[in-house]
Design a protein that fits this description.
heterodimer; A: alpha/beta; seven-stranded mixed β-sheet; two-stranded parallel sheet; 9 strands; B: alpha+beta; three-stranded mixed β-sheet; two-stranded antiparallel sheet; about 35% helix
Chain lengths: ~200, ~300
Protein backbone atom coordinates (compact mmCIF):
# COMPACT_ATOMS: atom_id res chain seq x y z
CA UNK A 1 0.00 0.00 0.00
CA UNK A 2 1.27 3.43 -0.83
CA UNK A 3 1.18 6.51 1.32
CA UNK A 4 -1.39 8.06 -1.02
CA UNK A 5 -3.80 5.19 -0.47
CA UNK A 6 -3.60 5.29 3.32
CA UNK A 7 -3.14 8.95 4.11
CA UNK A 8 -4.60 11.92 2.36
CA UNK A 9 -2.94 15.21 3.18
CA UNK A 10 -4.58 18.56 2.56
CA UNK A 11 -4.29 22.12 3.76
CA UNK A 12 -7.15 23.38 5.92
CA UNK A 13 -8.42 26.65 7.36
CA UNK A 14 -9.98 24.96 10.38
CA UNK A 15 -7.87 26.46 13.14
CA UNK A 16 -8.27 26.32 16.94
CA UNK A 17 -10.13 29.63 16.71
CA UNK A 18 -12.49 28.21 14.10
CA UNK A 19 -13.52 25.32 16.32
CA UNK A 20 -13.60 27.24 19.58
CA UNK A 21 -15.85 29.80 17.91
CA UNK A 22 -18.52 27.30 16.87
CA UNK A 23 -22.02 28.21 18.01
CA UNK A 24 -22.39 25.08 20.15
CA UNK A 25 -19.42 26.13 22.31
CA UNK A 26 -20.49 28.24 25.29
CA UNK A 27 -18.45 31.19 26.57
CA UNK A 28 -17.41 29.20 29.61
CA UNK A 29 -16.27 26.23 27.53
CA UNK A 30 -14.58 28.59 25.06
CA UNK A 31 -12.33 29.87 27.80
CA UNK A 32 -11.41 26.34 28.77
CA UNK A 33 -10.80 25.18 25.20
CA UNK A 34 -8.49 28.11 24.51
CA UNK A 35 -5.99 26.47 26.91
CA UNK A 36 -5.94 23.23 24.91
CA UNK A 37 -3.20 22.18 22.52
CA UNK A 38 -5.03 18.96 21.60
CA UNK A 39 -8.65 19.49 20.59
CA UNK A 40 -11.13 16.75 19.70
CA UNK A 41 -13.31 18.09 16.89
CA UNK A 42 -16.67 16.69 15.80
CA UNK A 43 -17.86 15.25 12.53
CA UNK A 44 -20.15 17.83 10.95
CA UNK A 45 -22.99 15.27 10.96
CA UNK A 46 -23.74 11.95 9.33
CA UNK A 47 -26.11 11.35 6.42
CA UNK A 48 -29.12 13.63 6.98
CA UNK A 49 -28.22 14.29 10.62
CA UNK A 50 -26.54 17.67 10.83
CA UNK A 51 -25.50 18.09 14.46
CA UNK A 52 -21.93 17.65 15.71
CA UNK A 53 -21.07 13.98 16.30
CA UNK A 54 -18.14 12.13 17.80
CA UNK A 55 -17.23 8.48 17.22
CA UNK A 56 -18.27 6.11 20.01
CA UNK A 57 -14.59 5.66 20.89
CA UNK A 58 -14.23 9.30 21.96
CA UNK A 59 -14.80 9.10 25.73
CA UNK A 60 -12.55 6.07 26.19
CA UNK A 61 -9.78 7.67 24.16
CA UNK A 62 -10.18 10.96 26.01
CA UNK A 63 -9.84 9.21 29.36
CA UNK A 64 -6.78 7.36 28.08
CA UNK A 65 -5.17 10.67 27.16
CA UNK A 66 -6.02 12.17 30.54
CA UNK A 67 -4.46 9.19 32.28
CA UNK A 68 -1.35 8.84 30.16
CA UNK A 69 -0.39 12.21 28.71
CA UNK A 70 2.44 14.17 30.24
CA UNK A 71 2.11 17.71 31.58
CA UNK A 72 2.68 19.30 28.18
CA UNK A 73 -0.44 17.83 26.59
CA UNK A 74 -3.69 19.67 27.35
CA UNK A 75 -6.50 17.77 25.69
CA UNK A 76 -10.14 18.79 25.51
CA UNK A 77 -13.27 18.11 23.51
CA UNK A 78 -15.04 20.71 21.45
CA UNK A 79 -18.51 20.14 22.89
CA UNK A 80 -20.43 20.56 26.13
CA UNK A 81 -20.90 17.32 28.08
CA UNK A 82 -24.68 17.50 27.82
CA UNK A 83 -24.56 18.06 24.05
CA UNK A 84 -22.24 15.14 23.36
CA UNK A 85 -23.68 12.65 20.87
CA UNK A 86 -21.85 9.65 19.50
CA UNK A 87 -21.96 7.98 16.13
CA UNK A 88 -21.91 4.19 16.45
CA UNK A 89 -21.45 2.09 13.32
CA UNK A 90 -21.23 -1.68 13.15
CA UNK A 91 -18.02 -1.93 11.21
CA UNK A 92 -14.85 -3.27 12.72
CA UNK A 93 -12.75 -0.15 12.34
CA UNK A 94 -11.28 1.64 15.31
CA UNK A 95 -12.65 5.10 14.62
CA UNK A 96 -10.70 7.65 16.62
CA UNK A 97 -12.06 11.15 17.01
CA UNK A 98 -10.75 13.86 14.73
CA UNK A 99 -8.07 15.84 16.50
CA UNK A 100 -6.52 19.26 15.98
CA UNK A 101 -3.07 19.46 17.56
CA UNK A 102 -0.35 22.06 17.91
CA UNK A 103 2.86 20.90 16.27
CA UNK A 104 4.84 21.26 19.51
CA UNK A 105 2.97 18.37 21.14
CA UNK A 106 2.04 16.44 17.97
CA UNK A 107 4.84 13.82 18.29
CA UNK A 108 3.74 13.13 21.89
CA UNK A 109 0.16 12.82 20.74
CA UNK A 110 1.07 10.36 18.00
CA UNK A 111 2.91 8.23 20.55
CA UNK A 112 -0.18 8.32 22.76
CA UNK A 113 -2.44 7.37 19.86
CA UNK A 114 -0.17 4.43 19.01
CA UNK A 115 -0.24 3.37 22.67
CA UNK A 116 -4.00 3.60 22.70
CA UNK A 117 -4.35 1.56 19.51
CA UNK A 118 -2.23 -1.19 21.05
CA UNK A 119 -4.14 -0.97 24.37
CA UNK A 120 -7.49 -1.30 22.61
CA UNK A 121 -6.64 -3.92 20.03
CA UNK A 122 -3.97 -6.10 21.62
CA UNK A 123 -2.88 -8.80 19.17
CA UNK A 124 -5.76 -7.82 16.84
CA UNK A 125 -3.56 -4.88 15.82
CA UNK A 126 -2.20 -7.14 13.02
CA UNK A 127 -5.58 -7.33 11.26
CA UNK A 128 -7.57 -4.32 12.47
CA UNK A 129 -8.06 -0.97 10.78
CA UNK A 130 -7.94 2.55 12.14
CA UNK A 131 -9.57 5.69 10.83
CA UNK A 132 -8.76 9.21 11.95
CA UNK A 133 -8.25 12.78 10.84
CA UNK A 134 -5.36 14.53 12.52
CA UNK A 135 -4.84 18.21 11.80
CA UNK A 136 -1.45 19.65 12.73
CA UNK A 137 -1.04 23.36 13.23
CA UNK A 138 2.46 24.79 12.88
CA UNK A 139 2.52 28.24 14.45
CA UNK A 140 6.07 28.89 13.09
CA UNK A 141 5.10 28.63 9.43
CA UNK A 142 1.35 29.10 9.60
CA UNK A 143 1.00 25.73 7.86
CA UNK A 144 -2.06 23.76 8.93
CA UNK A 145 -2.29 20.25 7.52
CA UNK A 146 -5.05 17.72 7.76
CA UNK A 147 -4.00 14.06 7.51
CA UNK A 148 -6.82 11.64 6.87
CA UNK A 149 -5.72 8.11 7.71
CA UNK A 150 -7.67 4.98 6.91
CA UNK A 151 -5.64 1.82 7.02
CA UNK A 152 -4.00 -0.93 9.03
CA UNK A 153 -3.75 -0.15 12.75
CA UNK A 154 -0.16 -1.38 12.77
CA UNK A 155 0.89 1.21 10.18
CA UNK A 156 -0.53 4.33 11.81
CA UNK A 157 2.83 5.41 13.17
CA UNK A 158 4.66 4.61 9.95
CA UNK A 159 2.38 6.90 7.95
CA UNK A 160 0.95 9.59 10.22
CA UNK A 161 3.88 9.55 12.65
CA UNK A 162 6.39 10.10 9.87
CA UNK A 163 4.48 13.15 8.61
CA UNK A 164 4.37 14.65 12.10
CA UNK A 165 8.10 14.04 12.61
CA UNK A 166 8.90 15.61 9.24
CA UNK A 167 6.90 18.69 10.13
CA UNK A 168 8.50 18.92 13.54
CA UNK A 169 12.07 18.54 12.29
CA UNK A 170 11.80 20.11 8.86
CA UNK A 171 12.17 23.84 9.44
CA UNK A 172 12.27 24.44 5.69
CA UNK A 173 8.89 22.91 4.96
CA UNK A 174 6.59 25.77 4.10
CA UNK A 175 4.02 24.30 1.76
CA UNK A 176 1.89 21.23 1.38
CA UNK A 177 3.77 20.20 -1.77
CA UNK A 178 7.11 20.38 0.06
CA UNK A 179 5.75 18.21 2.84
CA UNK A 180 4.34 15.64 0.43
CA UNK A 181 7.68 15.40 -1.37
CA UNK A 182 9.56 15.05 1.90
CA UNK A 183 7.14 12.41 3.21
CA UNK A 184 7.52 10.43 0.00
CA UNK A 185 11.33 10.62 0.18
CA UNK A 186 11.36 9.65 3.84
CA UNK A 187 9.24 6.60 3.15
CA UNK A 188 11.48 5.48 0.31
CA UNK A 189 14.54 5.92 2.53
CA UNK A 190 12.97 3.95 5.34
CA UNK A 191 11.86 1.17 3.03
CA UNK A 192 15.31 0.83 1.47
CA UNK A 193 16.94 0.84 4.91
CA UNK A 194 14.57 -1.91 6.00
CA UNK A 195 15.39 -3.95 2.90
CA UNK A 196 19.14 -3.57 3.54
CA UNK A 197 18.63 -4.95 7.06
CA UNK B 1 -7.56 -19.13 52.95
CA UNK B 2 -6.40 -22.76 52.61
CA UNK B 3 -9.96 -23.65 51.66
CA UNK B 4 -9.91 -21.02 48.91
CA UNK B 5 -6.60 -22.31 47.59
CA UNK B 6 -8.06 -25.80 47.43
CA UNK B 7 -11.10 -24.52 45.51
CA UNK B 8 -8.84 -22.61 43.15
CA UNK B 9 -6.77 -25.74 42.53
CA UNK B 10 -9.90 -27.71 41.66
CA UNK B 11 -11.00 -25.04 39.21
CA UNK B 12 -7.55 -24.97 37.62
CA UNK B 13 -7.64 -28.75 37.20
CA UNK B 14 -11.12 -28.53 35.71
CA UNK B 15 -9.98 -25.96 33.15
CA UNK B 16 -6.81 -27.88 32.32
CA UNK B 17 -8.70 -31.11 31.69
CA UNK B 18 -10.71 -29.55 28.87
CA UNK B 19 -9.07 -31.57 26.07
CA UNK B 20 -9.98 -35.00 27.38
CA UNK B 21 -12.84 -34.30 29.73
CA UNK B 22 -16.15 -36.06 29.22
CA UNK B 23 -18.88 -33.38 28.99
CA UNK B 24 -20.53 -33.18 32.40
CA UNK B 25 -22.99 -30.42 33.18
CA UNK B 26 -22.98 -31.17 36.91
CA UNK B 27 -19.22 -30.84 37.08
CA UNK B 28 -19.33 -27.67 35.04
CA UNK B 29 -22.06 -26.15 37.22
CA UNK B 30 -20.07 -27.06 40.32
CA UNK B 31 -17.04 -25.23 38.88
CA UNK B 32 -19.22 -22.18 38.15
CA UNK B 33 -20.56 -22.22 41.70
CA UNK B 34 -17.03 -22.45 43.11
CA UNK B 35 -15.97 -19.47 41.02
CA UNK B 36 -18.97 -17.43 42.14
CA UNK B 37 -18.30 -18.26 45.79
CA UNK B 38 -14.66 -17.32 45.51
CA UNK B 39 -15.49 -14.09 43.73
CA UNK B 40 -18.13 -13.11 46.28
CA UNK B 41 -15.67 -13.77 49.12
CA UNK B 42 -12.98 -11.71 47.40
CA UNK B 43 -15.36 -8.79 46.80
CA UNK B 44 -16.50 -8.87 50.43
CA UNK B 45 -12.90 -8.82 51.59
CA UNK B 46 -12.05 -6.05 49.15
CA UNK B 47 -9.52 -8.22 47.31
CA UNK B 48 -9.94 -6.74 43.82
CA UNK B 49 -7.06 -8.70 42.29
CA UNK B 50 -8.47 -12.05 43.37
CA UNK B 51 -11.98 -11.08 42.25
CA UNK B 52 -10.51 -10.13 38.86
CA UNK B 53 -8.73 -13.48 38.66
CA UNK B 54 -12.07 -15.22 39.28
CA UNK B 55 -13.69 -13.23 36.47
CA UNK B 56 -10.87 -14.33 34.19
CA UNK B 57 -11.19 -18.02 35.11
CA UNK B 58 -14.94 -17.82 34.57
CA UNK B 59 -14.29 -16.27 31.16
CA UNK B 60 -11.82 -19.08 30.36
CA UNK B 61 -14.54 -21.61 31.17
CA UNK B 62 -17.08 -19.76 29.07
CA UNK B 63 -14.67 -19.56 26.16
CA UNK B 64 -13.82 -23.26 26.31
CA UNK B 65 -17.50 -24.23 26.52
CA UNK B 66 -18.41 -21.82 23.72
CA UNK B 67 -15.77 -23.29 21.44
CA UNK B 68 -16.88 -26.86 22.17
CA UNK B 69 -20.50 -25.84 21.53
CA UNK B 70 -19.49 -24.21 18.25
CA UNK B 71 -17.64 -27.36 17.20
CA UNK B 72 -20.55 -29.64 18.09
CA UNK B 73 -23.00 -27.32 16.35
CA UNK B 74 -20.88 -27.40 13.21
CA UNK B 75 -20.79 -31.19 13.38
CA UNK B 76 -24.59 -31.17 13.65
CA UNK B 77 -24.80 -28.64 10.79
CA UNK B 78 -26.22 -25.92 13.02
CA UNK B 79 -23.90 -23.51 11.33
CA UNK B 80 -25.40 -20.18 12.30
CA UNK B 81 -25.55 -21.17 15.98
CA UNK B 82 -21.89 -22.18 15.76
CA UNK B 83 -21.07 -18.83 14.15
CA UNK B 84 -22.62 -16.98 17.10
CA UNK B 85 -20.62 -19.09 19.55
CA UNK B 86 -17.38 -18.44 17.64
CA UNK B 87 -18.05 -14.69 17.68
CA UNK B 88 -18.67 -14.88 21.43
CA UNK B 89 -15.37 -16.76 21.91
CA UNK B 90 -13.60 -14.05 19.93
CA UNK B 91 -14.93 -11.32 22.24
CA UNK B 92 -14.02 -13.25 25.38
CA UNK B 93 -10.53 -13.92 24.08
CA UNK B 94 -10.00 -10.19 23.43
CA UNK B 95 -10.79 -9.46 27.08
CA UNK B 96 -8.75 -12.39 28.38
CA UNK B 97 -5.75 -11.35 26.35
CA UNK B 98 -5.86 -7.97 28.04
CA UNK B 99 -6.39 -9.15 31.61
CA UNK B 100 -5.11 -12.68 31.86
CA UNK B 101 -3.03 -13.70 28.85
CA UNK B 102 -3.79 -16.69 26.68
CA UNK B 103 -0.73 -18.81 27.24
CA UNK B 104 -0.99 -20.09 30.83
CA UNK B 105 2.39 -21.37 32.12
CA UNK B 106 3.74 -21.18 28.58
CA UNK B 107 1.98 -24.43 27.73
CA UNK B 108 -1.48 -23.44 26.49
CA UNK B 109 -2.84 -25.38 29.45
CA UNK B 110 -6.35 -23.97 29.02
CA UNK B 111 -6.20 -24.33 25.20
CA UNK B 112 -6.92 -20.63 24.71
CA UNK B 113 -4.10 -20.25 22.17
CA UNK B 114 -5.63 -23.10 20.19
CA UNK B 115 -9.07 -21.47 20.30
CA UNK B 116 -7.60 -18.08 19.34
CA UNK B 117 -6.03 -19.74 16.30
CA UNK B 118 -8.87 -22.05 15.22
CA UNK B 119 -11.96 -19.90 15.83
CA UNK B 120 -10.91 -17.35 13.16
CA UNK B 121 -9.94 -20.24 10.84
CA UNK B 122 -13.48 -21.61 11.07
CA UNK B 123 -14.84 -18.10 10.58
CA UNK B 124 -12.81 -17.70 7.39
CA UNK B 125 -14.36 -20.85 5.96
CA UNK B 126 -17.88 -19.54 6.54
CA UNK B 127 -19.79 -18.22 3.53
CA UNK B 128 -20.96 -15.08 5.36
CA UNK B 129 -19.33 -12.14 3.59
CA UNK B 130 -21.84 -9.32 4.06
CA UNK B 131 -23.47 -8.24 7.30
CA UNK B 132 -26.11 -5.80 8.36
CA UNK B 133 -24.70 -2.70 9.96
CA UNK B 134 -26.92 -0.43 12.00
CA UNK B 135 -25.79 3.18 12.39
CA UNK B 136 -26.89 4.78 15.65
CA UNK B 137 -26.69 8.21 17.15
CA UNK B 138 -26.10 7.51 20.80
CA UNK B 139 -27.31 10.13 23.24
CA UNK B 140 -26.86 8.43 26.59
CA UNK B 141 -24.40 5.80 27.78
CA UNK B 142 -24.17 4.54 31.35
CA UNK B 143 -21.41 2.77 33.24
CA UNK B 144 -22.31 -0.92 33.71
CA UNK B 145 -20.60 -0.97 37.11
CA UNK B 146 -22.19 1.99 38.92
CA UNK B 147 -25.00 2.95 36.53
CA UNK B 148 -23.86 6.57 36.34
CA UNK B 149 -24.23 8.26 32.98
CA UNK B 150 -20.87 8.39 31.23
CA UNK B 151 -19.61 11.91 31.03
CA UNK B 152 -16.43 13.23 29.48
CA UNK B 153 -15.47 15.73 32.14
CA UNK B 154 -17.20 14.25 35.18
CA UNK B 155 -16.21 10.60 35.03
CA UNK B 156 -17.40 8.02 37.57
CA UNK B 157 -13.83 6.73 37.59
CA UNK B 158 -14.60 3.34 36.06
CA UNK B 159 -12.86 2.61 32.78
CA UNK B 160 -14.63 0.66 30.05
CA UNK B 161 -12.89 -2.68 29.52
CA UNK B 162 -11.42 -2.84 33.04
CA UNK B 163 -12.65 -5.24 35.75
CA UNK B 164 -14.15 -4.03 39.02
CA UNK B 165 -15.33 -6.34 41.81
CA UNK B 166 -15.08 -9.25 39.42
CA UNK B 167 -17.25 -7.63 36.72
CA UNK B 168 -16.21 -6.29 33.33
CA UNK B 169 -16.98 -2.61 32.89
CA UNK B 170 -18.88 -1.74 29.73
CA UNK B 171 -20.84 1.15 28.36
CA UNK B 172 -24.59 0.50 28.41
CA UNK B 173 -26.40 2.43 25.72
CA UNK B 174 -29.57 3.85 27.26
CA UNK B 175 -30.78 6.20 24.59
CA UNK B 176 -30.06 6.05 20.87
CA UNK B 177 -31.70 6.75 17.54
CA UNK B 178 -31.38 4.39 14.62
CA UNK B 179 -30.07 6.37 11.70
CA UNK B 180 -29.51 3.84 8.94
CA UNK B 181 -28.95 0.20 8.12
CA UNK B 182 -26.36 -0.76 5.56
CA UNK B 183 -24.16 -3.69 4.60
CA UNK B 184 -20.56 -4.09 5.69
CA UNK B 185 -17.93 -6.74 5.07
CA UNK B 186 -16.16 -6.35 8.40
CA UNK B 187 -18.72 -5.95 11.18
CA UNK B 188 -17.88 -5.23 14.78
CA UNK B 189 -20.72 -7.52 15.87
CA UNK B 190 -20.87 -10.58 13.66
CA UNK B 191 -24.39 -11.66 14.59
CA UNK B 192 -26.15 -9.60 11.93
CA UNK B 193 -26.04 -12.16 9.12
CA UNK B 194 -28.63 -11.60 6.38
CA UNK B 195 -30.87 -14.53 5.43
CA UNK B 196 -33.36 -14.64 2.59
CA UNK B 197 -37.09 -14.84 3.16
CA UNK B 198 -39.04 -17.57 1.44
CA UNK B 199 -41.70 -15.73 -0.51
CA UNK B 200 -44.15 -18.63 -0.14
CA UNK B 201 -43.82 -19.44 3.55
CA UNK B 202 -42.72 -15.98 4.61
CA UNK B 203 -40.08 -17.58 6.79
CA UNK B 204 -36.38 -16.91 6.87
CA UNK B 205 -34.23 -19.57 5.19
CA UNK B 206 -30.59 -20.44 5.47
CA UNK B 207 -29.48 -20.25 1.85
CA UNK B 208 -25.73 -20.42 2.46
CA UNK B 209 -23.38 -23.15 1.29
CA UNK B 210 -21.40 -24.37 4.30
CA UNK B 211 -19.47 -27.04 2.42
CA UNK B 212 -16.05 -25.65 3.34
CA UNK B 213 -16.84 -25.50 7.07
CA UNK B 214 -18.34 -28.95 6.97
CA UNK B 215 -15.32 -30.32 5.15
CA UNK B 216 -12.98 -29.06 7.85
CA UNK B 217 -15.04 -30.07 10.85
CA UNK B 218 -15.83 -33.54 9.49
CA UNK B 219 -12.14 -34.35 9.50
CA UNK B 220 -11.53 -33.28 13.07
CA UNK B 221 -12.11 -35.77 15.83
CA UNK B 222 -12.21 -33.15 18.58
CA UNK B 223 -12.48 -29.37 18.95
CA UNK B 224 -8.91 -29.43 20.17
CA UNK B 225 -7.40 -31.42 17.30
CA UNK B 226 -4.78 -29.41 15.45
CA UNK B 227 -5.42 -28.11 11.94
CA UNK B 228 -4.17 -25.33 9.72
CA UNK B 229 -5.70 -23.14 7.08
CA UNK B 230 -3.88 -21.35 4.30
CA UNK B 231 -5.94 -19.14 2.02
CA UNK B 232 -4.51 -18.24 -1.36
CA UNK B 233 -5.58 -17.58 -4.93
CA UNK B 234 -5.38 -20.40 -7.42
CA UNK B 235 -5.60 -20.15 -11.21
CA UNK B 236 -8.62 -22.00 -12.64
CA UNK B 237 -10.01 -22.55 -16.11
CA UNK B 238 -13.07 -20.40 -16.65
CA UNK B 239 -14.66 -23.37 -18.45
CA UNK B 240 -14.76 -25.15 -15.06
CA UNK B 241 -17.48 -22.70 -14.07
CA UNK B 242 -19.99 -23.36 -16.84
CA UNK B 243 -22.64 -23.90 -14.17
CA UNK B 244 -22.41 -20.23 -13.18
CA UNK B 245 -25.07 -18.00 -14.79
CA UNK B 246 -24.10 -14.86 -16.73
CA UNK B 247 -25.72 -12.62 -14.16
CA UNK B 248 -24.45 -14.52 -11.13
CA UNK B 249 -21.54 -13.25 -9.05
CA UNK B 250 -18.20 -13.98 -10.65
CA UNK B 251 -16.46 -17.02 -9.10
CA UNK B 252 -13.30 -14.93 -8.70
CA UNK B 253 -15.02 -13.17 -5.81
CA UNK B 254 -14.81 -9.66 -7.27
CA UNK B 255 -18.46 -9.02 -6.49
CA UNK B 256 -19.17 -8.15 -10.14
CA UNK B 257 -21.46 -10.11 -12.42
CA UNK B 258 -19.78 -13.05 -14.15
CA UNK B 259 -20.52 -11.59 -17.62
CA UNK B 260 -18.86 -8.31 -16.68
CA UNK B 261 -15.83 -9.87 -15.03
CA UNK B 262 -14.10 -13.13 -15.99
CA UNK B 263 -16.65 -14.90 -18.21
CA UNK B 264 -14.78 -14.20 -21.45
CA UNK B 265 -11.32 -14.97 -20.08
CA UNK B 266 -9.54 -18.31 -20.27
CA UNK B 267 -8.42 -18.35 -16.63
CA UNK B 268 -9.55 -16.74 -13.41
CA UNK B 269 -8.02 -16.52 -9.97
CA UNK B 270 -10.22 -18.10 -7.33
CA UNK B 271 -9.78 -18.12 -3.59
CA UNK B 272 -8.57 -21.52 -2.47
CA UNK B 273 -8.49 -22.97 1.02
CA UNK B 274 -5.70 -25.37 1.87
CA UNK B 275 -6.66 -27.19 5.03
CA UNK B 276 -3.97 -29.18 6.78
CA UNK B 277 -4.74 -31.95 9.26
CA UNK B 278 -1.46 -32.85 10.96
CA UNK B 279 -3.17 -35.63 12.92
CA UNK B 280 -5.30 -36.87 10.06
CA UNK B 281 -5.00 -39.80 7.75
CA UNK B 282 -5.26 -38.99 4.03
CA UNK B 283 -7.06 -42.25 3.31
CA UNK B 284 -9.92 -41.21 5.52
CA UNK B 285 -10.43 -37.80 3.98
CA UNK B 286 -13.59 -37.39 1.94
CA UNK B 287 -13.31 -36.52 -1.74
CA UNK B 288 -12.46 -32.89 -2.40
CA UNK B 289 -15.60 -32.33 -4.46
CA UNK B 290 -18.43 -33.34 -2.20
CA UNK B 291 -21.84 -31.92 -2.93
CA UNK B 292 -23.69 -34.39 -0.80
CA UNK B 293 -22.77 -32.66 2.42
CA UNK B 294 -24.72 -29.52 1.57
CA UNK B 295 -28.35 -29.33 2.51
CA UNK B 296 -30.42 -28.92 -0.61
CA UNK B 297 -28.92 -28.36 -4.01
CA UNK B 298 -25.74 -26.33 -3.75
CA UNK B 299 -25.32 -23.31 -5.94
CA UNK B 300 -21.69 -24.07 -6.45
CA UNK B 301 -19.89 -27.35 -5.88
CA UNK B 302 -17.21 -27.51 -3.25
CA UNK B 303 -14.29 -27.04 -5.58
CA UNK B 304 -12.17 -24.60 -3.67
CA UNK B 305 -11.05 -26.69 -0.74
CA UNK B 306 -8.03 -28.93 -0.69
CA UNK B 307 -6.39 -30.97 2.00
CA UNK B 308 -2.71 -31.05 2.75
CA UNK B 309 -0.93 -33.06 5.37
Amino acid sequence: MTQDQLVQISATDESFDYWIGRDYVSAELRERLSEANVLFTPYPGYLEYEGPLFPIETSEFFRYLQGNAGDGVIADVCIEDEDLEYLSLNHDVLELPNVLVKLLVAPMLVNLICGYILYRLGSRIKDASVEQELTIEDSRTGLRLKTKYKGPASKYDEFVGSIVRLLKDGDDLRTLAELEDAAHEERITRLSERRKR
Amino acid sequence: MADNQDKLKRIDQHLRSITNRVPDNDLDNAASQLLRDLKDDAVQEGDQDFAKQMWCLDAVKECQNGFIKAFNDMKRRHFFGAWISLARCENILANLERHFGLDVDGSDAYRLVHIAKCAPQFQRLYPYKQFFSAGFIVQEVACSICGQELSLRDSCGHVVGEIYSGELCGGEIRKADLLEVSFVENPRFKHAVPFVNNSVTGKSEDHYNYASVHYAVENLTSPFAAWDLIVHKRQRLVSDFNYVGRNDPCPCGSGDKFKKCCMRKKYLLRQHYDIGFPDGNPEHLPPIVDNAIVRGKPRYPLDNVGASL
